[in-house]
Amino acid sequence: MGSKYPPSMRGCLPLWTLLLVVAFIVIFFFFTSYDTSSQDPKELTDTYRVLQDVTIMMALGFGFINSSLRRYGWSSMAFNLFLLALTVQWAVLLNGFLEQLSPQKVVIKLSSIKLATMSAMSVLISAGAVLGKANLVQLVLMALVEVTAFGVMRMIQAKYFVMRFNNMLDLHDTSGVYYTFGLPGLLGEIAHIVLITLQDDWTKSTRVEYQLLLDIGALSLALAMGLIIGLLTGLVLNLKIWKGPHMSNYFDDQLYWKFPHLAVGF
């Protein structure tokens, strides 16, 4: 029995992703270089161990987190691993350009790869919320936007925010990321602010008060940026030009993979 899925989906997505990978190869060739300076062997070993642990956690943990889905196990694993590889590359470039803010080549270090791998975590968490209801093009667009927002947010918090500070929704969540990662983080920061407020001696300490204001500002900025970027990304991904899967094809590997032994309608 023939497949009910269009062959164009299986043909266009690999071609599109191949072009994207080629574009990254060209960018890395002309705009990056490797760090050749001498480094402390102990520090280098410690950094490598952390990178190794983070990579294993990302690849084996997030990469196979949805492999138990009965009809979407193949796509789940393949898309997660592809997004991990893609976002690490984009994060290395983005973080390098943002940190140096100069036309010089981005110097790739082991520490920059570690930071990029950790930045990719936010993408895989978000992807876990929409897997099965978005095709690979939509996931890649979401990844590029989110890594960009994450990198800019990290720079603002680390370099610019402190300096400038001185002068009932219908949600789909495949992997439970909202209540597993988002809500605990939000409640934890709110609890932190409340505890500092209750324990602080307002008549003596000014340093704690200053830190409290920074925490409130950081939380407000993170919430505002998350809502705005999430809303804009959602609007872009819902455009019909991306040809997202129809509702009848949600959580179905047969849209992207060939299974000759399976009958139509499995």
UniProtKB/TrEMBL annotation:
It is a multi-pass membrane protein. It is found in: Membrane. One of its GO terms (biological process) is ammonium homeostasis. The gene is RHCE. This is Ammonium transporter AmtB-like domain-containing protein. One of its GO terms (cellular component) is plasma membrane. It comes from the Eukaryota. Its main location: membrane. Keywords: Membrane, Transmembrane, Transmembrane helix. Pfam families: Ammonium_transp (PF00909). Belongs to the ammonium transporter (TC 2.A.49) family. Rh subfamily. Residues 19-153, 160-249 form the Ammonium transporter AmtB-like domain. InterPro entries: Ammonium/urea_transptr, NH4_transpt_AmtB-like_dom, RhesusRHD. The chain crosses the membrane at residues 15-34, 77-98, 110-130, 136-156, 177-198, 218-239. One of its GO terms (molecular function) is ammonium channel activity. It comes from Suricata suricatta (Meerkat).
